[in-house]
Amino acid sequence: MTTRTNRLDLSLPARDRAHLTLVKHNKAQMQLWVNGLPIMNASECGKQLYQTISELVSLHIEEDLRFELLEVLQPTIRNLITALEKHTLNQPLLLAIQGRRVFALILALRRQLALNYKAIATETLRKLQGRVGFMDFGRKGAQLLAATAIQRMMAELQCYLLDCFRQYEETPAGIWTDLHRLIRVAEGQGLADIAIKAGLNQQDSTSIRQTYLATVLLSASQTHKLRPSEMELVYQHSQELAALLTLNTTAKGSLLVCNLDDSSPQYHHLITTSYESWYVHSQALAEHFEMQISQAVPTPLPLSLLTHLYETWRAARERMFERTVCHKNILLCVGMSSAHYYVGGQTPFKIVVKGEEKVEEVKQPAFLFGLEEDKVVEEQPDAWQVCYGTVKGIDQETDEDAQQPVVPTMTYMPYRVTAVNRCPAGYGIVWAETPPPTLRVGEIIGMSEKRGEGWGVGVLHWLRQTSNKTFEAGVELLDAHPKPCGVCLIKNGKPTSDYMRGFLIPEMEALERPATLITINSGLTTHSTVQISINGQEVMAQLTKQVLATQSLSQFEFALLSDKAKDDDDDDEFNSTAKMWAKL
Q: For position 377, what pLDDT does the model report?
């Protein structure tokens, strides 16, 4: 269980086992055995559960009994997985050895659950081809058993996908083959819309179609652009949101294509359709997201996630620019504090906001002390030299025997990464070293493309873990020359807090892009009044429109407010963007 391939094998084994090793195969004995498991010892508990459930799939018994035994085992397995997830969630992107072993156990348990439900569904569907019981009186019960088994299997595969998505791993091969095939079999047998009790909660009901669409919703929501906590929210609301999706064979007006192969649901322009293709229509879902975004009341999903889902489900998203292959060393710093530090020329935040403090001193003739008149400026460490050694070492290999310079102390240490493709919007990078804990989707990034040309600011757009345990990432460049500043919220004419870090993005008239303000995601909303400060120069502004929102940052268009220190005759001139840049 400690080794995995990127393929989910759900082929059914021969049913040649007469009994289970650890427990008798009846419901009462299984329940007693489950109650006596060493739940405080997760390792031993997982070992016994895995052995029992892997033996159950090859046990030669009736399918209704297999289903009863599974319903006893499933809650305990789910609880164990929840306990084990503390080793895989809220951890560094690249899991430690213990975390990888736990993750492999979680996937193995989910696979065995899905395999057992598949065995029940396959055998019950085979029996439905003929008569079931005397005078076919058992057909309705067999149909319900088959439908429940298919729904349970789809639910386990959805959890399997969620586990992979939260580690930014690729979808295992083979998983969508079973999902696409089962929904078509269920539709052909009239099982797709049978009401099924959702697990132990007898008040909730679902269906095969709804569970399939919930899995489609999770998979097609571009989870590589979300954080694990956001993926969890999408999963938790997937059943209710799936009711707003429609699945049929009509291509017109549809968003996604579901082929009868191993490909996940895709936009039309990304996949070739066939006569067996089914289609997902999402207009009602997009309207639901749009309505929630426009409401002023709190919603179950955060605004940044709602915006992402709306953009994903309202229309097919195509690339605006073509990628160009490259191989280029660049420096990255992760987080608002480090990005602000490097974009500001390694200047402390206090000086960026307030400017240099002027201390009045009694001047003494410099020649009396043998001093030069010019003040010696303290030189900051060169980030490129710290990361790559000498200037020559940036693009070339250096002599390993040569004495390396002493690495100076850095307030924020940048990271070396390799850009493998680029476009006007940003870079595709490969992170071969161990990624920092702060590397998260939606995090603000400082980026230096070349030594001596300053730092730009961007956002980590997506993440993907490759098979060799390195990470690929997409960095969207927001601006190549932002202006670091301090921002504070104003209420009733007074600041409500200390200054927080921010960036002013200048207006680009050629692209019809107005000036914007980037801040950390600290509760600022449209219509908020803020004070912007650079080197002691302060202006008041009102946030007018939010153009970007992630869990880490917000970007707003803004309008300048009148400066009380200026004369009324100068108000119109001050309110222009050009005047603001001149002042700051």
A: 46
CA angle 217, 220, 225 (to 5 degrees): 115
pTM, whole model, 2 decimals?
Answer: 0.85
| β-bridge mates for residue 555, sequence order | 518, 548
β-strands 529-534, 483-491 pairing? antiparallel
Cβ atoms within 10 Å of 503's Cβ, excluding its own: 25
E strand spans, 391-505? 415-423, 426-431, 444-448, 456-465, 471-479, 483-491, 494-495, 500-505
The number of beta carbons lying within 10 Å of the beta carbon of residue 424 is 9
What's the pLDDT tens digit per position in 341-367?
Answer: 999 888 888 888 887 654 444 454 444
Ordered DSSP codes for 215-268:
HHHHHTS-GGGS-HHHHHHHHHTHHHHHTT-EEES--TT-SEEE-SSSPPPEEG
Domains of the chain: 1-221 (no CATH), 325-354+382-395+409-479 (2.40.10), 483-583 (2.40.10)
Report which of 9, 114, 113, 13 is spatially closest to residue 53, judged by C-alpha positions. Answer: 113
Element at 280 (helix H, strand E): strand 278-281
